[in-house]
């Protein structure tokens, strides 16, 4: 016996289908209420409240005054904020590109068979497991210009000591070193997972055709790995944009304001100066920036997938 | 004349029999009793520091004395400041007692009237122990705890003075005397600086925000002394402020270790403890780690002196903390008991002799026996007494103190980088003026 709707003419079958969906929605719609309440309370309400605060002049402990888009206007003329955007982009670019390069290279190495490979892999991913604040405190001690181990090592090999995070010109690259040390293993793990899933046939065909190792990597491995690399890229970019703990613990945005990224600026406005309205405007602009970058990366990912 | 009936006689007799109990009850209400709030509980929110650690260690004493249970938390300084401000602003703070950094939050707390006025409790003989001795608190400390409108919304707990630490060996090696003025300090520090031996004449805070108190140490010695006038006008780009900026720049550029631009007190402490710096100006709380033989290479060789004098005055920076009781607290009585115990003479003496900091009371400094038994030299205690005499608030009593420190602090770090002090202070003053004006309009 066929489905009852199959016996009905087209329009009637469609109407019957729609009716069933309505019944289904009426009967089971209540099941999404708990999830809806959570989404409303945890995501939508804070967002709506942030938008509400961003159009007010509001200091903790003080009154609230509606100021329209004044906070946004001030933000785009605030040199300190604009510089923090530049520093964020500079830091993010370095903190994404370097772990991507090193992580991919490490994955290629760890994909090969060699003695004690398992142990080496474990050691390599250890930094990723460490607490960022603890990591930052240890690096702070190592960066000390007179008493830190890094300058001792440099002088042992005849190089001049560096000021590391204690100089405006070297502070961001130095913070990137910590970020690279901490997060390269994550990229390695993602790419290594990709490498493990690659098919063997294309390599056999390439070998028969006489392709060199570089040609096999360039024309087979890399294109097939690209979706995994793009995933790692998206995760790294969002993580680097959000970086706060390491920077705050090591430099607190200094020397001066030379490592003050948007996150540090936002933290100071909100929780040191208690300018909640202004800080909310920063959140909205920062969110727009993250969404734009994520959209750009997703678009790239789709292009790669469809290529 | 009414007759004496049997009923009247019985009433009078019953009254006479009950009298001692009634008298005792009335007396109990009038006399102070540590057990009055037995069975109650208070919540205390404190900044994590050696003084709070001492209070927590001796908390069982209080609980035994009063029968009041205490739930005390210790939170690192910066996070604690944010936490209590946000909790107060929420209108329902989770604590009854709170430790407040007067040099940062005094005006903010006072303006919002977040803490209750303690004066009525201090004056209430049923609530305050007879041996509390309010007169024992230093006048400066009491003034620091008192708001402009006369309300005393915290009880002074700790006073911090900036003092001069010096390495006796380094000074003796070059036969250099302890400097009496800032100019002498610069000359001595310059003479003691030898980068080839990684030895520097001076170390001090260079990190933005933290560095402002070193600059204000110099400014306190000038004619103008303060950073804000009594009518709340900024005085941070005046000739005196520029002189202080130049002194800061000279010391940090010519005599301090490379990288000092990013030094907070902890990096300064490490440098001084390793014997790499001859002079260090900072708070009084560092004597304990400096004299710790297990950690410090300069233990037993540290000299203590009041900060040198400026061209017009001789002052040192004063900072401090106080304990307040939340206006929203429904347990003000037990909370007051905790506060008066926390700053009693015994605990204040413990602060001093353990090197946890300078107490707000005067009596610990007069306790010769305890001072003799202390592991710190007499010179340290003399420096504290002398500093108390010349102490003056090191930061302006304004609401946006952190923003002030950040803005002026950024200018100071630029000076360490070589920027012109006058131009930097002018720029910073212009940047901060609208913030201060807006804050004052909100008063």
UniProtKB/TrEMBL annotation, chain A:
Domain of life of the organism in this record?
A: Bacteria
The record's annotation in InterPro entries points to: MetI-like, MetI-like_sf, Sugar_ABC_transporter
* Name of the protein in its database record: Sugar ABC transporter permease
Q: Which key words tag this protein in UniProt?
A: Membrane, Transmembrane, Transmembrane helix, Transport
The cellular location(s) given in this protein's UniProt record come to: Cell membrane
Membrane topology according to the record? Multi-pass membrane protein
The residue ranges of the ABC transmembrane type-1 domain are: 85-295
Mind telling me which SUPFAM superfamilies this protein's record contains?
MetI-like
List, alphabetically, the GO terms of the cellular component aspect: plasma membrane
Q: Which organism is it from?
A: Teichococcus coralli
UniProtKB/TrEMBL annotation, chain B:
Keywords per UniProt? Signal, Transport
Presence of the UniProt keyword Transport in the record: yes
Domain of life, per the record?
Answer: Bacteria
What GO cellular component is one of the record's annotations? periplasmic space
Q: Where in the cell is it found?
A: Periplasm
UniProt cross-references to CDD domains, sorted A to Z: PBP2_TMBP_like
Similarity comment text for this entry: Belongs to the bacterial solute-binding protein 1 family.
Q: What protein does this entry describe? A: Sugar ABC transporter substrate-binding protein
* The species this protein was found in: Teichococcus coralli
């Amino acid at each position: 016996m066929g489905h009852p709707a199959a016996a009905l003419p087209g329009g009637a079958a469609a109407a019957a289908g729609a009716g069933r969906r309505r019944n289904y929605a009426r009967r089971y719609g209540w099941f999404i209420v708990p999830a809806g309440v959570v989404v409303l309370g945890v995501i939508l309400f804070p967002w709506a409240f942030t938008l509400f605060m961003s159009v007010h002049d509001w200091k903790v402990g003080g009154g609230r005054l509606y100021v329209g888009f004044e906070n946004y206007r001030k933000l785009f003329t605030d040199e300190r904020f604009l510089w923090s955007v530049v520093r964020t982009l500079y830091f993010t670019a370095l903190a994404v590109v370097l772990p991507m390069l090193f992580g991919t290279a490490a994955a290629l190495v760890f994909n090969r068979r060699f003695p004690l490979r398992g142990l080496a892999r474990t050691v390599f991913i250890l930094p990723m497991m460490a607490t960022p604040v603890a990591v930052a405190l240890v690096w702070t001690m190592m960066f000390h210009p007179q008493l830190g181990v890094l300058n001792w090592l440099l002088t042992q090999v005849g190089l001049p000591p560096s000021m590391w995070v204690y100089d405006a010109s070297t502070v961001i690259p130095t913070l990137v070193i910590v970020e690279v040390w901490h997060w390269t293993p994550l990229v390695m793990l993602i790419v290594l997972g990709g490498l493990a899933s690659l098919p063997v046939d294309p390599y056999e065909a390439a070998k028969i055709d006489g392709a060199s190792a570089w040609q096999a990597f360039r024309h087979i491995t890399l294109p097939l790995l690209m979706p995994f690399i793009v995933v790692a890229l998206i995760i790294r970019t969002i993580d680097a944009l959000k970086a706060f703990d390491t920077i705050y613990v090591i430099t607190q945005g200094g020397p001066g304001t030379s490592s003050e990224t948007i996150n540090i600026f936002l933290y100071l406005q909100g929780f040191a100066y208690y300018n909640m309205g202004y800080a909310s405007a920063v959140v909205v602009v920062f969110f727009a920036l993250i969404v734009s970058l994520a959209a750009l990366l997703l678009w790239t990912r789709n292009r790669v997938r469809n290529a | 004349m009414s007759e004496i009936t049997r009923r009247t006689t019985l009433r009078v007799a019953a009254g006479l029999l009950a009298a001692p109990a009634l008298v005792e009850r009335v007396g109990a209400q009038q006399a102070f009793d540590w057990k009055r709030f037995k069975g109650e509980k208070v919540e205390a929110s404190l900044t994590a520091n050696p003084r709070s650690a001492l209070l927590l260690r001796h908390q069982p004493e209080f609980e035994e004395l009063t029968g009041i249970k205490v739930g005390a938390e210790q939170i690192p300084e910066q996070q604690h400041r944010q936490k209590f401000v946000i909790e107060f602003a929420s209108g329902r703070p989770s604590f009854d007692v709170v430790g407040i950094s007067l040099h940062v939050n005094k005006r903010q707390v006072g303006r919002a009237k977040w803490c209750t006025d303690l004066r009525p409790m201090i004056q209430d003989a049923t609530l305050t122990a007879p041996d509390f001795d309010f007169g024992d608190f230093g006048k400066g400390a009491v003034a620091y705890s008192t708001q402009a409108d006369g309300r005393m919304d915290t009880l002074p707990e700790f006073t911090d003075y900036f003092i001069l630490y010096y390495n006796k060996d380094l000074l003796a090696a070059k036969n250099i005397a302890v400097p009496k003025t800032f100019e002498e300090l610069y000359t001595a520090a310059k003479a003691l600086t030898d980068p080839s031996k990684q030895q520097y004449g001076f170390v001090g805070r260079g990190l933005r925000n933290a560095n402002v108190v070193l600059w204000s140490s110099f400014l306190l010695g000038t004619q103008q002394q303060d950073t804000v006038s009594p009518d709340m006008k900024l005085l941070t780009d005046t000739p005196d402020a520029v002189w202080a900026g130049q002194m800061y720049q000279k010391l940090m550029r010519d005599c301090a270790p490379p990288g000092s631009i990013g030094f907070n007190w902890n990096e300064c402490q490490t440098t001084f403890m390793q014997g790499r710096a001859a002079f260090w100006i900072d708070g009084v709380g560092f004597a304990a780690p400096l004299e710790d033989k297990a950690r410090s290479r300069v233990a037993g060789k540290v000299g203590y002196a009041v900060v040198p004098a400026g061209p017009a005055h001789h002052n040192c920076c004063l900072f401090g903390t106080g304990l307040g009781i939340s206006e929203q607290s429904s347990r003000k009585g037990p909370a007051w008991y905790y506060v008066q115990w926390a700053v009693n003479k015994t605990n204040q003496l413990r602060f001093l002799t353990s090197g946890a900091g300078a107490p707000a009371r005067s009596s610990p400094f007069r306790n010769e026996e305890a001072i003799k038994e202390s592991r710190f030299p007499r010179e340290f205690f003399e420096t504290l007494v002398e500093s108390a005499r010349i102490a003056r608030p090191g930061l302006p009593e304004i609401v946006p103190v952190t923003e002030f420190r950040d803005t002026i602090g950024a200018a100071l770090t630029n000076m360490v980088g070589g920027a012109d002090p006058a131009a930097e202070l002018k720029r910073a003053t212009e940047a901060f003026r609208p913030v201060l004006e807006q804050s004052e309009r909100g008063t």
